Amino acid sequence: MLSFALSYEGRSMSEAHIFVIEDEESFVDALEVGLAREGFTVSVARDGFEALEKFDEVNPDLVLLDVMLPRVTGIEVCRQLRQKSTIPIIMVTAKSSEIDTVVGLEVGADDYVAKPYRIRELVARIRAALRRNAGDITGEVPRPTATSVVVGDIELNEAEHTVTVRGESVAMPLKEFDVLRLLMMNVGQVMTRELLIDRVWGSDYYGDTKTLDVHVKRVRAKIESDPANPSKIVTVRGLGYKFERPAT
Ligand code: CA
Question: How much distance in Å is there from the Cα of 42 to the middle of ligand 1?
Fold first, then answer.
C-alpha cells in the first residue's frame, strides 16, 4: 500500500483519504500524483481481494473502484463494502457504454465514471461526493444544520445521516439518502427528474438518467411495504417522482 499526503501553504491538511482500487499501473500512477496534488491522501489496492482485505485498515473517506479487477471484480467489492459501509463509492468503467450495465446491477455505488477521464473531472466528482457526505470532511462550506424530517412512518435525520423505517434503522448510501431527503422535504410535490438529478448529482452531471431510477428503486426497496406497488414514492409519468402525503 502506498499512502502519502501533501500539504501546502494556506491549505488544510484535513483533506480526504481516497482508496484507489485499480490494477492498471498508468492509472494508478496518474491518480497518485493527481489526487495528492489536490491535497488528498491516497492509498492503493491493485486487485479486489487486496481491496477488501485492506479496507478497514485504510479506513478511507471515499473509494474509487475500477470495475474490471483481478481476483475479485469491482462489482463484488462494491457489494461487499456496501454491506458494512455507506462511504461514497465512485465506480470506474472501462467504457462509457458499460455504465448502464454496471448501474443496472444496483451494487450501491454513488457515482460512475468512464475511462478515459480527466483528473480534473474526477476530482470534481470526488469533491461533490465528499460534500454530500455527512460531516463535510473536505473543509468546504458545511451543510446547513438540518433537523430530522418525519413523513408518516419514515424518519430521516440529516445531521446523523440516519433513516428509520417503521422503527427500524436502514442503511442508506449517500445518493439514495439525498434522493429520499429531497422527496421527503417536498412531500406532496412533484419533483421533476431534472431537478432531482441536478440537486443530487450536480448540474454538471453527464451520466445516464437511468441512474436516478435505479436509486429510486433502491430507496423504494428499503422504505415501501410493497416496493413493486409503491405508495410512498410514486412515479408521476413524464415528470418525475413525488413523496405522497401519508393518509390521515
Ligand atoms: Ca482494470
Answer: 18
